[in-house]
Amino acid sequence: MKFYSNIYSATKKNLKKASLLIKLGKVIAIPTETVYGLAGNAYKTIAIKKIYKLKKRPKNNPLIVHFSNIREIQNEAEINDQLIKLVKYFSPGPITYILPIKKGSRISKLVLNKKNQIACRIPKNKTFLTILKKSQVPIAAPSANLSNKVSTTRAIDVQKEFGNKISYILQSKKISFGLESTVISMEKNISILRPGPITKEMMEKVLKIKVHETKFKNQGVAPGQMRKHYSPGIPVFLNQKKAKPNGALLFFGKHKTNKNVFFLSKKYSTKEAAAKLYILLRRIKEMGFRSISVSKIPNTGIGKAINDRLKRASS
Ligand code: TXA
Ligand code: MG
User: Residue 219: CB within 6 Å of ligand 1?
Assistant: First the structure.
């Protein structure tokens, strides 16, 4: 029997091939340190169109563009002093900056928001950085999942999500965070549009100014901060102590029974919980449970980002 697989390990040869595919305008899946990205050449509108189509993503929801360093960002976007500081401390890493696009930039207009701003991120994953350097183009990459669904953190989950509609998925050794990057807008002040691994407190410490948080209920306003998002495809209930009939319990901490219980972190680590969240949400659905009850999760550090995603998953 012959198995069809579109998953490739990150060998030198495969990275070269992947970089060429990107350059040519093909869409492939590349791991980052947060989640998998569905990646395409940001200069090529044809690649961007393909990404929107594959994800079934509404056209008004802009895409993050990935760069290998700040000079590459500066080629396409207007930078500022605060950006330079934040990049120095947190990039490469799980943070995305929204900046005005530079006049004359060749980046496809389709990735921009209505104000002609571009979301820029320098990822920390070796595979992704190598492809950025080899292809020598900025790479647009939303999370590699169907629109409004849970992001993917493993090659096998990307494959299940898209089947053979994408021809090339690069294998990842390790995804460190498991949750999407923090997204910040940098207009009059710095405000967090999507909480993530880089927290308000971390940024305030570096910038020595207040960083604002947009409230969950206001977030229909910010581009792409869709309310109904991150859905595992079955109902999610928050702050629960028990599973519903035919449902599973997703639990933070130690629990006396194991039956239908899935553990985010037995050692009370929000970091571990973030890394396991999407894998467990997907697994519970695949096993045929009818709902997911989630226990209370501390709202500190990356816990804020976990609660943000779960709130949307449950809405
Ligand atoms: O960790 C991540 O950020 C991953 C990896 C692949 O880099 N990417 C990711 O992309 O999560 P996506 O498309 O799933 O989520 C990006 C979010 C969306 O809510 C989108 O609306 C917002 O960022 N966004 C993108 N470009 C924007 C822009 N120009 N202005 C405002 N929001 C933007
Ligand atoms: Mg996404």
Answer: no
Residues 6 or more apart whose CB falls under 8 angstroms from that of 102 comprise: 75, 76, 77, 78
Using a 6 Å cutoff on CB, does residue 147 contact ligand 1?
A: no
Tokens of 264: 């985010």
Measured in angstroms, how far is the CA atom of residue 254 from the centroid of ligand 2?
30
85 has a pLDDT exceeding 90: yes
Strand partners, 119: 64, 98
Strand partners, 191: 185, 212
Task: Please report which confidence band the pLDDT of residue 198 belongs to, taking 50, 70 and 90 as the band edges.
Answer: very high
CA of 192 to the centre of ligand 2 (A): 16
> What is the predicted pLDDT for the residue at 2?
43
Find all residues with CB under 8 Å of 98, minimum gap 6, and list them: 113, 117, 118, 119, 120, 183, 184, 185, 186, 193
255 CA distance to ligand 2 centroid (A)?
31
Residue 175 pLDDT grade (very low, low, confident, very high; cuts 50, 70, 90) = confident
Q: Which ligand is nearest to the CA of 223?
A: 1
CA distances for 190 relative to 16, 64, 89, 114, 211, angstroms? 38, 18, 16, 19, 5
Contacts of 3 (CB under 8 A, 6+ apart): none
Confidence of residue 290 (pLDDT cuts 50, 70, 90): very high
What amino acid is encoded at 48 in this protein?
A: I
Q: In what order do the strands lie in the sheet with 236-237?
A: 236-237, 292-294, 248-252, 261-265
- Please tell me the distance between residue 142's alpha carbon and the centre of ligand 1 in angstroms: 6
Extract the tokens encoding 266. Answer: 């037995």
Residue whose CA lies nearest to ligand 1 atom number 3: 181
Ordered DSSP codes for 60-111: TS--EEE-SSHHHHHHHB---HHHHHHHHHH-SSSEEEEEEBPTT--S-GGG
CA dihedral (185, 51, 15, 162) in degrees, to 10, reads: 120
Instruction: For 295-311, write each residue's pLDDT tens digit.
Output: 999 999 999 999 999 99
